[in-house]
Design goal:
Helices cover 80% and strands 0% of the residues. It is mainly alpha-helical and 427 residues long. It is globular, with a radius of gyration of 21 Å. The protein starts with a helix and ends with a helix.
């Protein structure tokens, strides 16, 4: 009965439009009261949720991403991507995917990817004769590369939700191949749709232009190299690496590209504070909510339920994927990572699934949820950038959904995709 009270109150809060973070906190504290537990313990759980040193990396990652978004790095990455792959049929669609892979691997944010690249590429694609729905759909679906390709603050949230026993450096390594694989699948979908719609190819600018654009993009690309390389080499901790990455991003935009202004710097600071505060409040309240889920033995009951339905690991993994896909359509990604990881990770462990692989399954799955109605934040932002009604975009986005789903199935059932790099290079 207590579990029904917890989940029922949470559902009511969501239906009333209460922000997810506050819905988690209200329902958790109310469940403490319902069970007669000291409310002081509930508030202690909320505070302890963010009293984790590793979380210091998140504001630095977010600030670095905002500096790159407002500091001109995105434009140089687009020029390099266009010179490299723009000559293929429907090349601007593939340029969009390739640019997202490069920028997402630096910013670590899907929404930042859409805001930065969408505002550049969508108008250009329209001008070149591409349909608005195609431009928006490619931009929206490719943006989730930032969630999977390191560095990604969502990986840090997953590591904390998993109990803190997962190496961040190994998580970063585990995300490289799945992220590239997903982008390859999306590029194939973009090419197929472009051929069917008879879009033209761009002219190859020549190797000189390719080299020149690559040299111009190197300072920005080095941001990801410094952050990830610093962690993998052991020179920095994750938090130190994130802080140094933010300093480097500021130095590049101020001294190398000279493209950041005082106004854009202030915007980056304000946006970073807003995003960080939302993430921290969410993590704090989710900690209390997760405690009550454990109190009601939800993880154990979930393992018993799924293994009771079938002992076939393939079917169990498919059920977990379906559950995550459905939840991803109606809830925020960070909240779902914090809530679902303690529930489904024990199930994955019982099947012999490595936590690194399960992390990639969850991130790709919930990333797809960001692109789906009714509450997909990436879909909303992409349609706003492209000035396109969401209903129009959804009608033709299904080839890109299929591409992401194909990558998800490969990541789910081929462990080597996620585990090869961590085993070869990981510490």
């Amino acid at each position: 009965m207590g579990l029904l009270f917890l989940l029922g109150l949470f559902a009511i809060c969501i239906l009333l439009g209460v922000p997810v973070a506050f819905a988690l906190g209200i329902s958790a504290v109310a469940a403490f009261w319902y069970e007669g537990l000291p409310l002081m313990i509930g508030f202690q759980r909320i505070i302890s949720g963010i009293n984790v040193f590793l979380l210091m990396a998140i504001p630095f990652f977010i600030f670095a991403g905002e500096l790159m978004l407002h500091g001109g790095i995105a434009m140089r990455l687009v020029k390099f991507a266009s010179a490299a792959v723009g000559a293929v049929r429907g090349g601007l669609g593939i340029v969009n995917v390739f640019s997202s892979m490069l920028f997402g691997g630096i910013s670590g944010s899907a929404v930042a990817d859409i805001s930065a690249l969408g505002s550049i590429l969508v108008p250009v694609m329209k001008k070149k004769g591409y349909d608005a729905d195609y431009a928006v759909n490619v931009t929206v679906t490719s943006s989730i590369a930032g969630i999977i390709i390191p560095p990604s603050h969502n990986m840090i949230i997953f590591a904390i939700a998993a109990g803190g026993g997962i190496s961040i450096s190994k998580l970063f390594l585990a995300g490289v191949v799945p992220g590239v694989l997903m982008c390859i699948c999306l590029a194939a979908a973009a090419y197929i749709v472009a051929v069917r719609r008879n879009y033209s190819a761009e002219k190859f600018p020549g190797f000189g232009a390719l080299v020149f654009s690559f040299v111009g993009a190197i300072p920005g690309l080095l941001t990801a190299v410094i952050i990830v390389g610093g962690v993998l080499s052991g020179v920095f901790t994750v938090t130190e690496s994130a802080a140094f990455g933010a300093i480097y991003a500021f130095a590049v935009t101020l001294l190398v590209y000279r493209s950041i202004t005082w106004e854009s710097f202030c915007i980056a600071v304000v946006q970073s504070v807003r995003t960080t505060s939302m993430v921290m409040i969410l993590i704090a309240c989710a900690a209390a909510f997760a405690y009550m889920l454990t109190f009601y033995r939800v993880p154990t009951k979930t393992v018993d339920l799924l293994t009771g339905l079938t002992e076939n690991p393939i079917l169990i993994l498919l059920m977990i994927n379906v559950a995550l896909l459905v939840l991803g359509m109606i809830m925020d990604m960070a909240a779902l990572i914090l809530i679902c990881t303690p529930i489904f990770l024990p199930v994955a462990n019982s099947l012999g699934i490595d936590p690194l692989q399960f992390g990639m399954i969850m991130l790709v799955n919930l990333g797809l949820g960001l692109c789906t109605p009714p509450v997909g934040s990436c879909l909303f932002v992409g349609c706003a950038v492209g000035k396109l009604p969401m209903e129009t975009a959804v009608r033709t986005i299904w080839p890109f959904y299929i591409a992401i789903f194909a990558a998800l199935m490969m990541i789910t059932f081929i462990p080597a995709i996620s585990l090869t790099l961590p085993r070869l290079i990981g510490q």
